[in-house]
Amino acid sequence: DRAGQAARFVSTHLRDERGVLQHTWRRGEASVDAFLADYAYLLHGLIALARATDDPTWLRQASRLADQMIDRLAIPEGGFYSAVVADDLLVRNRPIHDAAVPAANGTAILALIDLGEALDEPRYLDIAERALRAFAGPLSEGSGAYPTLARAVLRWSLVSAAEQVDKEPPPHETP
């Protein structure tokens, strides 16, 4: 119930007049365009809420949020920038290192895989795959700094394997 209340609050109050997710809320005012971490963690939460309640409303909200994240932050070759373009922003990074919290790109990729599977929506799975390919270099170095991306690779491999099994024709039976 509390998670649903929180999700409804964010959906209602943390949006600007364009419907864009905002980062902060203070004294009844939402401000500052959301960062990748805001999108990624909220997506993760909405998908978990949908699983816990079996209420498809949360998946629909997650889908709209994922579309907004993709439109605003996706990098054409794969992955996501941490912030939208702004006049006072010199460089937009693509965070992949885990620290005290899981990396926003890894969390976003995991959420897209989960959302794509839950909605049977290949577009989200394709975007997740492109992101994983974009980060293959750092992952292949074997550093322990990317456990969330490594989880996303494992999750992706499981979803891909299941898709392949679904696509394979049934074995031919001989009389």
Task: Give an overview in words.
The model has no long low-confidence stretch (mean pLDDT 91). The radius of gyration is 18 Å and the shape is globular. Helix content is 59%, strand content 6%. With 175 residues, it is mostly helical. The protein has helices at residues 2-13, 36-53, 56-73, 104-119, 122-134, 136-140, 147-167; strands at residues 22-26, 29-33. Helix 2 packs antiparallel against helix 3 (56-73). It has seven helices and two strands. Strand 1 and strand 2 form a beta hairpin. It has a two-stranded antiparallel sheet.
List the helices and strands and how they pair.
Blueprint (H helix, E strand, L loop, with lengths): L1 H12 L8 E5 L2 E5 L2 H18 L2 H18 L30 H16 L2 H13 L1 H5 L6 H21 L8
Antiparallel strand pairs: 1-2
The percent range for strand residues is 5-15%
Shape: globular
- Rg, rounded, reads 18 Å
Order of helices and strands: HEEHHHHHH
User: How far from one another are the termini?
Assistant: 56 Å
Poorly predicted tracts of residues: none
Q: Strand order, biggest sheet?
A: 1-2
The structure class reads mainly alpha
The strand count comes to: 2
Overall pLDDT confidence: 91
Q: Major sheet: size, sense and barrel closure? A: 2 strands, antiparallel
Number of helices: 7
Helix residue percentage: 55-70%
